[in-house]
Amino acid sequence: MTERIREFLRNRREDGPCVVVDLDVVRDNYHAFAHSLPDTRVFYAVKANPAPEILNLLAELGSSFDCASVAEIEMVLATGAGADRISFGNTIKKERDIARAFELGVRLFAVDCEAEVEKIARSAPGSRVFCRILCDGAGADWPLSRKFGCAPEMAPRVLELAHRLGLAAYGISFHVGSQQGNVDAWDSALGSAAAIFHDMAERGIQLSMVNMGGGFPAKYLKEMPGVPAYGEAIFRSLTRHFGNRLPETIIEPGRGMVGNAGLIEAEVVLISRKSDDDEVRWVYLDIGKFNGLAETMDEAIRYPILTDKDSDRKTPCVLAGPTCDSVDVLYEKTPYELPVSLAIGDKVLIEACGAYTTTYSSVAFNGFSPLASYVI
Fold first, then answer.
1. Which phi and psi (to 5°) does residue 162 adopt?
2. What is the annotated signal peptide range for this record (predicted)?
3. Which of 26, 62, 107, 180 is the most exposed place for a label (fewest CB within 10 A)?
C-alpha cells in the first residue's frame, strides 16, 4: 500500500467497500514497460481498468490502447488520443460496431477466422488486420480458453483472404495467458509467428507486425519476475526466431499496468462456524465475486489480504462475500490464515486490486452497489 492510498483511506468517510488506485504506480509501470521493451509499442488493455484518470494519464505518457468495444474506443478518444493509437482487439465484433469504429478513425482490427475478415472488408475497407493464433498458456495462473484465436496453420489462409479482399494483412497476435509467471512463455508463440511470416512471404504477402499480447503479471501472493526480465526474454526470442529482420512489435499490458496500483478496503460483516467442532471459521466480507472479486473464481487469483491485527495468532478461514448466492465464496479449497482476534466491523485490505475489479462490478446484484472507485 502506498502512502498516498494510506492517507486517502485515513480520511475517507463513506461506507462500503472501495478500490483506490494510485496513478503514481501506473506511471511507474508504464515507464517500466517502455524502458524494458523500447522498440515495442505499448497498447494498454482498457478492459483492465477504464477509469478516465488512468486513460488520461496513459494518453499523456504516449501509450496506445487495446479496445474490446466501441464504448472503450470512445473512452480513449475522449482523452484526446488519436484513433491511430487504437487497436480494436476483440475478435468477436458486430458488423455495425466495425463500421462505427471505422467511422471514428480506427484502422487496426483483430481477426481469427474468414468470417470476421469478410465483415471488416465490407465495413472497414482498406484497414489493417492481424490474425490471432492459439498458443499454450502453460505457466499462467489463468490460462486462456480456446474462445479467441485459430490454429497457427489456419492463419495464412485467413490473412491471404484479407489480402484478396483489399485489406492490409498486417501481422499475427497471441496471448500467453493471464498472470504468466514464465518469462520464456512467449518463445513458442514467437516461433509460430515467424513460421507464419515465412509462409506468407512465400505467398507474396509481407507481414509487418507481431502483437505479443498481455500476460504480464501483477504481484499477488507469489513472487513474480519483474518487467525487465520479461523484456530480456522476449527480445532473446524475437532475435532467435526473426534474426536481424525484427518485426514491428506490440504488447497489451492490462493487469501488469494497473494491478499493483490499486487496493480494496472492505469490512468484516460476519464471522461464524458451521458446527461446534468446526476448526475453520467463515469470514464474510462486504465484497465478493459479484462486487469486484470475480477473479477469485476457482481461486485462480489469490489476493494478499492484510488486517490491523496481523501480528496476532492466525488460524484458517474460509472467505465469502455478502450476497444471497451460494457461489459467492472466495476461498474455501485453500483457506486463508487470518487473526483469531479479527472481529465483525474490522477493516481488511485486499492488495493488488487495480485490475479487473471495477469492470467486474458494474451491476447492483442483490441490490449491493457497484464497487466504489477512487483514482488518486
1. -55, -45
2. none
3. 62
Residues found in the chain? 376
- Which helix (DSSP H) or strand (DSSP E) does residue 367 occupy? none
User: What is this structure's pTM?
Assistant: 0.95
Annotated catalytic residue 324: yes
Instruction: Please identify which of the residues 18, 113, 150, 324 carries the catalytic annotation.
Output: 324
Strand pairing report for 347-351 and 262-272: antiparallel
pLDDT at 200 over 90: yes
Per-residue pLDDT band for 60 (boundaries 50, 70, 90) equals very high
When pLDDT is cut at 50, 70 and 90, the band that residue 364 belongs to is: confident
The pair phi, psi for residue 91, each rounded to 5°, is -85, 0
Q: How far apart are CA 105 and CA 157, in angstroms?
A: 27
Give the pLDDT score at 69.
Answer: 98
Tally of CB atoms within 10 A around 297:
13
Query: Checking DSSP bridges between strand 372-375 and strand 18-21, what pairing results, if any?
Result: parallel
- For residue 129 the three cell numbers come to 488486420
Q: How far apart are CA 220 and CA 111, in angstroms?
A: 32
Q: Which of 31, 40, 103, 19 is nearest to 60 (CA)?
A: 31
The string of pLDDT tens digits covering residues 297-340 is 999 899 999 999 999 999 999 999 999 999 999 999 999 999 99
Assess whether pLDDT exceeds 80 at residue 83.
yes
User: Of the candidates 242, 142, 154, 146, which has an alpha carbon nearest to the alpha carbon of residue 190?
Assistant: 242
Contact 175, 150 (CB under 8 A): no
